[in-house]
Design goal:
By secondary structure, the protein is of the alpha+beta class. The protein contains 13 helices and ten strands. The strands form three sheets. A four-stranded mixed sheet has the order 1-4-5-8. Strands 2-3-7-6 form a four-stranded antiparallel sheet, with no helix packed on it. It has a two-stranded antiparallel sheet with strand order 9-10. Strand 2 and strand 3 form a beta hairpin. The structure holds flavin-adenine dinucleotide. This is Acyl-CoA dehydrogenase family protein.
Length: 402
């Protein structure tokens, strides 16, 4: 397998880094302090084409293949200091746009993809509920057929982009047909429909420039034309799409790891104690070496998923491994960067304490590390590793694809 970037990918990487450094995240410290969504930066991303990278040109995007999208997102994560903005972009792409791309009808694609690419509409994924986090099949939102509509009722929480989103991809129960996964349906719900309330914002530890909130669906009349896939196939829609979220969403984190490594190397060379640069102490040098090991392994895992997806292949195991390793590696690397910088890494006017706070969400969202390990153990053949019931079937997010 040749993982060398093509000349075109290298050019794209250079362009994206320049764009991200010059045009994004200028006020990130203040935006983070105020938990403010940088709408202007979002529009700049749209104008640069970021929001349409994986979308075919006929629907208003750039039509990049998955491996090239990874290269571009990695560059964005490297060049842009505002991890929250990049996370908002990722939620838009992998929580909403990808559902339309993989399961939307031609009419749905024509209607929604162009405005999602050009920045007119913001997308979000409203899945988690107060009583259904890791246990997606425990969700309680319902959608009852009523002529050419469905009446949608339920509460979704921790929805990234929620307070500013115009389009939600959501899952609701449309029937009770034996197996829990057979009664779910995926919907596209627009925020302008009466009964959609997205006003309850949540304050969080990191990624504060991504707004997060509670979304209430109070007897919303959702057109039947907004079903994604078909009625009852919601779990298959979800599991077949989650691979994208569990891998491509983390490309930007690989870029962030590289940025943290470079900052730490600079500091290790510049900072002097005991008459020499601190990089000369093995304890510090080894921290840097471990950052480099994590970065290279993370990149290999990610590129492998990109390659599999480009070939049109399933990548559930690979995406799950990538999700665990990259998100946990970023936490370790951000932690090491703070340590290498000493008090300069800890104080609030350094970017590093923000980087660490931002990193801590990764092992939770898109399925916690523990749940991912349960999925991997089940995929390896251990019965009940996830459900705790050795006699039962796999029952979580992506534990049982299709
Ligand atoms: C920054 C951030 C952004 C998010 N964005 C979104 C979003 O856009 N849309 C959305 O729908 N949700 C979003 N979420 C919610 C996220 O998907 C859930 O937090 C996640 O699925 C876990 O659910 P929970 O928080 O309810 O934890 P729980 O499921 O209650 O888990 C609590 C603890 O129990 C452990 N646990 C649970 N089940 C098992 C098991 N079977 N085996 C081993 N351990 C287990 C977990 O690992 C965890 O440590 C976001 C969360 C964060 C932190």
């Amino acid at each position: 397998m040749n993982l060398e970037l093509t000349a075109e990918q290298r050019r794209l990487r250079t362009e994206v880094i320049a764009f991200a450094r010059e045009e994004l995240g200028r006020d990130v410290a203040a935006d983070d302090r105020e938990s403010r969504f940088p709408l202007e930066d979002w529009r700049r991303c749209a104008a640069f084409g970021v929001l349409g990278w994986p979308v075919p040109a006929e629907y208003g995007g750039r039509g990049l293949d998955p491996l090239t999208v990874i290269v571009a997102l990695e560059a964005l994560g490297y060049g842009c200091r505002d991890n929250g903005l990049v996370f908002a972009v990722n939620n838009h792409l992998w929580g909403c746009v990808i559902y339309l791309l993989t399961h939307g009808t031609d009419e749905q694609k024509k209607r929604y993809l162009k405005p999602l690419c050009d920045g007119t509409l913001i997308g979000a994924h409203a899945l988690t509920e107060p009583e259904a986090g890791s246990d997606v099949l425990g969700l309680r939102a319902t959608a009852e057929r009523d002529g050419d509509h469905y009446r949608l009722r339920g509460t979704k929480c921790f929805v990234s982009n929620g307070p500013v989103a115009d389009v939600f991809v959501t899952l609701a129960r449309t029937g009770d047909r034996g197996r829990a996964q057979d009664g779910l349906t995926a919907f596209l719900v627009t925020a302008d429909l009466p009964g959609v309330d997205r006003t309850r914002e949540l304050t969080k530890m990191g990624l504060r420039t991504t707004p997060m909130g509670v979304v209430e669906f109070d007897d919303v009349a959702v057109p039947a034309a907004n079903v994604l896939g078909r009625e009852g196939a919601g779990y298959a829609v979800f599991t077949s799409t989650i691979e994208w979220e569990r891998s491509l969403m983390f490309a930007a984190q690989v870029g962030a790891m590289e940025r943290l490594l470079e900052e730490s190397v600079r500091h290790a060379n510049a900072r002097r104690q005991f008459g020499r640069s601190i990089g000369g102490f093995q304890a510090v040098a080894h921290q840097i070496a471990d950052m480099k090991i994590r970065l290279e392994l993370a990149r290999l895992l990610l590129y492998r998923v990109g390659w599999l997806k480009r070939e049109g292949r399933m990548a559930l195991t690979e995406a799950t491994i990538a999700k665990i390793f990259i998100s946990e590696s970023l936490v370790s690397t951000a932690m090491a960067a703070v340590e290498v910088h000493g008090a300069r890494g800890y104080v609030a006017d350094s970017s590093l304490e923000r980087e660490l706070r931002d990193a801590l969400g990764g092992p939770i969202y898109a399925g916690t590390s523990a749940v991912q390990r349960g999925i991997l153990a089940e995929l390896a053949g251990v019965r009940g590793a996830l459900s705790g019931d050795p006699g039962g079937a796999a029952r979580e997010t992506g534990g049982e694809p299709g």
